[in-house]
Design brief:
Number of strands: 12
Strand content: 15-25%
Distance between the termini: 25 Å
Shape: globular
Radius of gyration: 21 Å
Largest sheet: 8 strands, mixed
Strand order of the largest sheet: 6-7-8-3-9-10-12-11
Number of helices: 12
Length: 328
C-alpha cells in the first residue's frame, strides 16, 4: 500500500441494530489509499461497500447504524473522533461523494447552477456572483453549456444529471472523492462518457478516489487497487494486476467466471452457487464456505486471516494460506 496514506481505515466494524437482530454490515475492515490513487470496492449487493464509505463521510443513519469499533484516519486525523461541526467543514471541501442515483441527489426546485454555487459558498465563501460564475465554469468542465446552469434537474437527461453531480462534487477541489456506483442508472454509451470524464478530471485534480461498483470492467478501466468484499469483509486486496492476473480467492474467481468471454465459445455463464448469507446470521468459519466448491472442515470452523501471498496482495482463504488446493 502507498507510503503516503491519505486515507487509512483500521479494524472498522459497523452494525445495524433492530429490535430483534443485529446486522453485521462491516466487520474488522482494513484499507488504505494514497494521494491520487483509485481504489475499487467490488462485491455483491449487501457486501458492506456503501456502509464503508458512509462511515468515512459520517452519514450513517444512527440509529440503527452504530460504529462498534475502529478508526478512520484522513490525512492523519481520525474522522470518527472529530465533532459534527468539524465534519461539516470536511464534507464537500476535503471529501466529496457522488451518489448512486443522480435523480434523487439533486434538489428539484433549485437550478443546477444554484446548487453547485451553494456548495462553493458554503466552503470557499465569496459573493453570490463569484460562486455562480465558478458553478457555470464547473458545468463547462463536465461538458454542459454554462447557460444551462439556469435549468432545473428535470430538464436534464440521466447522463447530464450525473455530470451535474460530478461538477458539484469537484466544485471545491476535494482531495478525496467517493463514487458510489456512479454509472448504474445510465446506459452503456453514457457510462463510457461519464467514466472517461471522471478519469480526466481525476488526473487533472490529482484526486484520490474510492469507486464502488459491481462491474469489473469499470475496475479494469479506472482503478489502481481493488478490494473484493464479501459479507462485510475484504476477502482479497491487491493491485489491479494482482486481482485480474493472479486471482486467488474462490469468490473472486467466481465473480470473473460470471463474465461472458467473447474469445471462447460458452453456452451459459457459470454463476456462484447459493446466496449471500443473512447478515443477522452469518455462517461460522469462512463466510463464503456455504457457497465455496473447495470448502473443507477447517473452512467451516475457523475464520481465515488476511495473509500477504505476494507483496501488496492479501487474501483471506485457508486453501491459499494453508497451502491447500492450488486451483482454489
Amino acid at each position: 500500500m502507498a507510503n503516503e496514506k491519505l486515507l487509512e481505515i483500521k479494524n472498522l466494524t459497523v452494525h445495524y441494530q433492530s429490535y430483534d437482530a443485529t446486522v453485521h454490515a462491516v466487520e474488522n475492515l482494513n484499507l488504505s489509499l494514497g494521494n491520487g490513487e483509485t481504489l475499487g470496492l467490488v462485491g455483491e449487493t449487501g457486501a458492506g461497500k456503501t456502509t464503508t464509505v458512509k462511515s468515512i463521510m459520517r452519514i450513517l443513519p444512527t440509529p440503527p447504524a452504530r460504529v462498534v469499533s475502529g478508526e478512520i484516519f484522513f490525512d492523519g486525523q481520525d474522522l470518527l473522533k472529530v465533532s459534527e461541526k468539524e465534519m461539516r467543514k470536511i464534507r464537500g471541501k476535503e471529501i466529496a461523494m457522488i451518489f448512486q442515483d443522480p435523480m434523487t441527489s439533486l434538489n428539484p426546485v433549485m437550478t443546477v447552477a444554484d446548487q453547485i454555487a451553494e456548495v462553493i459558498r458554503l466552503h470557499d465563501g465569496g459573493s453570490r456572483a463569484e460562486a455562480h460564475k465558478k458553478a457555470c465554469d464547473m458545468l463547462e468542465l463536465v461538458g454542459i453549456r454554462p447557460e444551462r446552469g439556469s435549468d432545473y434537474p428535470h430538464q436534464f437527461s440521466g447522463g447530464m444529471k450525473q455530470r451535474v453531480v460530478i461538477a458539484m462534487a469537484l466544485a471545491c477541489n476535494p482531495r478525496f472523492l467517493i463514487a458510489d456506483e456512479p454509472t448504474t442508472a445510465l446506459d452503456v454509451t453514457i457510462q463510457a462518457q461519464v467514466l472517461e470524464l471522471m478519469k480526466k478530471l481525476k488526473a487533472q485534480y490529482q484526486t484520490a478516489m474510492v469507486m464502488i461498483t459491481h462491474d469489473l470492467g469499470i475496475v479494469a478501466e479506472i482503478c489502481d487497487y481493488v478490494a473484493i468484499m464479501y459479507a462485510g469483509e475484504v476477502v482479497e486486496y491487491g493491485t489491479r494486476e494482482h486481482i485480474f492476473n493472479s486471482t486467488a480467492h474462490p469468490y473472486t474467481k467466481g465473480l470473473f467466471a460470471c463474465i461472458p468471454d467473447i474469445f471462447t465459445e460458452q453456452n451459459e455463464l457459470v454463476p456462484i452457487n447459493g446466496l449471500t448469507p443473512d447478515p443477522t446470521d452469518l455462517p461460522q468459519g469462512c463466510r463464503f464456505n456455504p457457497r465455496c466448491p473447495y470448502a473443507t472442515e477447517r473452512c467451516r470452523q475457523e475464520h481465515p486471516e488476511n495473509v500477504e501471498i505476494e507483496p501488496g496482495h492479501f487474501v483471506a482463504c485457508h486453501l491459499i494460506n494453508g497451502g491447500g488446493n492450488e486451483n482454489a
